[in-house]
Design goal:
Blueprint lengths: L7 H40 L8 H63 L3 H9 L4 H76 L1 H40 L16 H12 L12 E4 L2 E4 L7 E4 L2 E5 L4 E3 L4 E8 L5 E7 L2 E11 L6 E2 L4 E5 L8 E9 L2 E3 L9
Antiparallel strand pairs: 1-4, 2-3, 4-11, 5-10, 6-7, 6-9, 7-8, 8-10, 8-11, 11-12
Helix pairs in contact: 1-2, 2-4
């Protein structure tokens, strides 16, 4: 006869392995949902609006973004399907073992019932006790009969438990196979769509190559213009730091304060704010409620023209028309800069950190205003040619640019 101990280790092993794979699959499932959401955002924010003027270079950048996200989604779906295949194979093996164990338990139980039936009469039990050679043997036989009855009850319970385990695993396998079939179908659809995107990409590349010099010149002029704007912002920030430090020194007349060039002199309150800001690294909210990053931080090669480098001073985030920029942390409006085209750039000071919200059409705040986390500070400008609403978000520590992606929440 087999006891409860026979299948308990197998059950524990099954549950622990299933849990490990489940966690991995859950991560991939979350990533898949995130990428699906991002594809919807790419389509909504980059492709839904009809552009008033055709710009092959801009269109190619949008197509490249769509292909990039779709390729990530295909890779994620493929990984998830592979894990599911392994889970299904492992669970089918476990199911065979569990079914065999269940059959053994049922056989043992049937044998016990048969033996019990043969000796079920009270007379047989009495004779079994009376035939004992001594009192101790009679006692042992009585105990045996009690244990036998208890064991039979336990085996019946074990069969019920084992049957439920087998049923749950069967249901789990059916669900897993359905999920896998859905994933394979989804991957097929994504591959078909990415093929269509790549055809559009090839057509755009052909168009660009025909007028390569024109597009190159336009791009280089744009890069030069961006450098000029960046230099102006850098200069203005240095001026603001110098101005803030002059005010701070006046307040500290009897307490001379030495500080490095282009660094804020911080009051105790400003130091505390800067510390809180640092403690929230990686947890700060996005500067806009919804959007996708179309240009990352740092130097990056241009995707179409080899030898041309694009420098991302911050994050370029495309969002919905009419949305506002939102402050990522408590602070004070250091200044509001205005470009030659009339675009606004709000600089908010958080101790010795500065967050910059560029490409705004209107502002809701003024210099010196105290700002709260999440507060709307200005409406983001929508380009009338491309119909894109884009915020340029930059982060500084004193005058040093930081990678905003390391500071805001990952989406």
């Amino acid at each position: 006869m087999k006891s409860k101990k026979f299948y308990i280790p197998l059950l524990i092993f099954f549950l622990s392995v299933f849990s490990v794979f489940g966690q991995t699959r859950k991560q991939l499932e979350a990533q898949r949902k995130k990428l699906n959401k991002e594809i919807k955002q790419v389509n909504a924010l980059l492709f839904n609006e009809k552009k008033k003027e055709k710009n092959a270079l801009e269109n190619l950048k949008d197509i490249n973004k769509k292909i990039e996200v779709r390729a990530q989604l295909i890779s994620t779906i493929n990984s998830e399907a592979k894990i599911l295949s392994k889970e299904i194979t492992d669970n089918e093996t476990k199911l065979k073992k569990l079914n065999k164990n269940l059959a053994d338990l049922k056989k043992d139980y049937a044998d016990m019932i048969f033996k019990s039936y043969k000796s079920k009469s009270q007379q047989s039990r009495t004779m079994f006790l009376l035939s004992s050679q001594n009192f101790y043997q009679a006692y042992k036989r009585l105990e045996y009969m009690k244990q036998y009855t208890s064991f039979r009850k336990t085996q019946g319970e074990n069969i019920i438990v084992q049957t439920n385990i087998v049923k749950k695993l069967n249901d789990s396998l059916l669900y897993q196979k359905t999920v896998k079939d859905t994933l394979i179908l989804s991957e097929k659809r994504q591959k078909e769509q990415i093929e269509g995107d790549r055809k559009d990409q090839e057509q755009l590349i052909t168009t660009i190559k025909k007028k390569e010099n024109k597009y190159k010149k336009s791009l280089q002029n744009k890069i030069k213009e961006e450098k000029k704007i960046v230099a102006k912002i850098d200069k203005k920030i240095k001026e603001e730091i110098a101005r803030a430090n002059r005010i701070a020194r006046e307040k500290l007349k009897n307490k001379p304060k030495t500080v490095k060039k282009n660094e804020f002199i911080l009051s105790p309150e400003a130091k505390a704010l800067a510390t809180k800001f640092e403690l929230n690294k990686g947890k700060l909210p996005w500067p806009v409620s919804e959007g996708i990053i179309v240009r990352k931080f740092g130097k990056q090669p241009h995707p179409t023209f080899p030898g041309i480098t694009v420098n991302g001073t911050g994050l370029h985030i495309v969002t919905k028309k009419g949305l506002s920029a939102e402050a990522i942390f408590n602070g004070v409006v250091l200044n509001i800069l205005v470009s030659s085209e009339g675009r606004k750039n709000i600089l908010i000071q958080h101790g010795n950190y500065i967050s910059s919200y560029n490409n705004l059409e209107n502002t809701y705040v003024k210099k010196g205003d105290k700002i709260k986390t999440g507060q709307k500070i200005g409406q983001i400008f929508t380009d009338k040619v491309s119909n894109k609403t884009k915020l340029i978000f930059v982060l500084f520590k004193n005058t040093t640019r930081l990678n905003p992606s390391s500071w805001i929440l990952r989406r």
